[in-house]
Design a protein that fits this description.
Elements: H1 9-31, H2 37-44, H3 48-76, H4 78-98, H5 102-130, H6 133-165, H7 178-184, H8 187-197, H9 204-209, H10 213-224, H11 229-238, H12 262-276, H13 279-292, H14 297-325, H15 328-350, E1 353-354, E2 360-361, H16 365-382, H17 384-394, H18 401-429, H19 431-453
């Protein structure tokens, strides 16, 4: 039994916090687009479909970044991939703001997507690989707090910049419009992330897998204490393939049946269902959604800030309880809560009126829709928001963690792209009620999926995870 008294908890927490700056940038980069839609339409003269591509183009990069980061991290390490992601964040933030054409903007957003995708899978994986089992859920949940805080910061930044300029399309400083400055603000945390990464150690589990035994033992000594090094090293080493071959995508197949391992399908299911409940419609199109429901641009941006604050409160609850209650109960409660709140929103939107311009008029029911939306956001960030990333970071055995994250991360961002890129089309064809009806169905099916297939991982060391 490892001696818990020798663990360097302060160092583990500090290193985890550095990794979660990637989560902050993930959130900021995802949320910043929310306040720039009007600016993009005006600057690039794009129609509904074109705007949908501008907004969702980042998600193409996210899918590629998540898939590539997973298996590249098995070859080059977790830390180098996070550093490459930090550089991509910096270049994307600058380029998205300076872009003069839609094509140029899409290129820089895809580059940002590569960074977001890489950070989305590598930050929780890195934290899982350095954290003791009894703290792992809490520390990994900090990633979701960072994502939400990044979203919240982007919403506040967008709101303030638009307020100072008069609107997102008005000129702000140095003759540039406010929506361009919304992207450039991200340069500050992105640069901080790159600098901070130079001070953290490589994942000890990666070092063991790559045969760098002495470096692995040195990191294990710093994290867990000298008395625990040999036992921890032996446990990690024993969890790898018998021939100690380099982990790869082929490990996702069962050696006997040649079929994809069940744990991989469960990971893919978790990743996809997190998106099928429609959460990123709120993240990316919150302003558009509430303007369609009859609120002004300023009101819509303020509602985003309120939703961000609700999200942060929900994640704090999860951080406190996840290592006590477990992962599966949170997912079940979250699916049920989202299904109910989404159903209320569907009812409100289905029974709303239409004005002379064809816009929704909710009247007094607008408050009901607003409350239901924030309840929905609360349940998501209490459950599927943090817990899905916690589970993806810890549920795969050491030998397939990188490859499993590559495939599950790709599935998550592909589903994200599908949901996000189709929202404006759904809005125009079947309205808010129809679109949210589909997301309600996704929440109901996710409840059944978790109940039937997901296994609890609370309190288990990574070396105890099974195929």
């Amino acid at each position: 039994m490892p001696d818990k008294n020798n663990e360097n908890i302060l160092l583990i927490v500090l290193v985890s916090c550095v990794a979660t700056i990637g989560g902050f940038l993930f959130g900021f980069d995802s949320g910043v687009i929310n306040g720039t839609v009007d600016g993009l339409q005006a600057a690039f003269k794009s129609d509904t479909a074109g705007t949908g591509l501008n907004v969702s183009s980042m998600l193409i990069g996210c899918a590629i970044g998540a898939f590539s980061a997973g298996w590249l991290a098995d070859k080059f390490g977790r830390k180098p991939i996070l550093m490459v992601a930090a550089i991509c964040f910096i270049v994307s933030a600058w380029g998205s703001g300076i872009a003069s054409t839609s094509a140029e903007f899409v290129v820089f957003r895809i580059l940002g997507g590569l960074a977001v995708g890489a950070a989305s899978v590598m930050a929780p994986a890195y934290i899982s690989e350095i954290a003791p089992a009894r703290y792992r859920g809490t520390l990994s949940s900090i990633q979701q707090f960072a994502i939400i805080f990044g979203l919240f910061s982007a919403f506040v930044s967008n709101y303030l910049l638009a307020d100072i300029a008069g609107s997102s399309t008005a000129q702000l400083w140095s003759g540039f419009q406010a929506w361009r400055w919304m992207f450039w603000i991200e340069l500050i945390p992105a640069t901080l992330f790159l600098v901070a990464l130079t001070f953290i150690p490589e994942s000890p589990r990666y070092l063991v897998m790559s045969g760098k035994s002495e470096k692995a033992k040195a990191v294990l000594s710093r994290l867990y204490g000298a008395t625990n090094v040999d036992q921890k090293f032996s446990e990690i080493d024993a969890s790898l393939a018998e021939d100690h071959h380099t982990p790869g995508l082929k490990d996702l197949l069962d050696t006997a049946s040649k079929r994809v391992r069940p744990i991989v399908w469960i990971g893919i299911g978790l990743a996809i269902f997190q998106q099928l409940v429609g959460i990123n419609v709120v993240f990316y199109y919150g302003a558009v959604l509430w303007q369609a429901a009859g609120f002004s641009e300023a009101d819509a941006l303020l509602i985003n800030i309120i939703s961000g604050a609700v999200s942060i409160g929900a994640v704090f609850i999860t951080m406190y309880l996840i290592d006590k209650i477990g992962r599966k109960p949170f997912l079940l409660v979250g699916s049920l809560g989202m299904a109910m709140s989404l159903a209320i929103m569907v009812f409100v939107f289905a029974n709303s009126g239409i004005d002379a311009n064809g816009d929704l008029t909710l009247g007094e029911m607008g408050i009901v829709a607003l409350l239901a939306a924030n309840i929905y956001v609360f349940f998501f960030n209490l459950s599927w928001g943090p817990v899905m990333w916690v589970m993806l970071g810890e549920m795969f055995p050491n030998q397939i963690r990188g490859s499993g994250l590559a495939v599950a991360g790709f599935a998550q961002w592909a589903a994200n792209f599908l949901v996000t890129s189709t929202f404006l089309t759904l809005l125009a064809s079947i309205g808010l009620a129809g679109a949210y009806g589909l997301y309600t169905l996704g929440a109901i099916v996710s409840l059944l999926f978790v109940y039937r297939f997901v296994r609890e991982t609370k309190g288990k060391e990574l070396e105890q995870m099974s195929y």
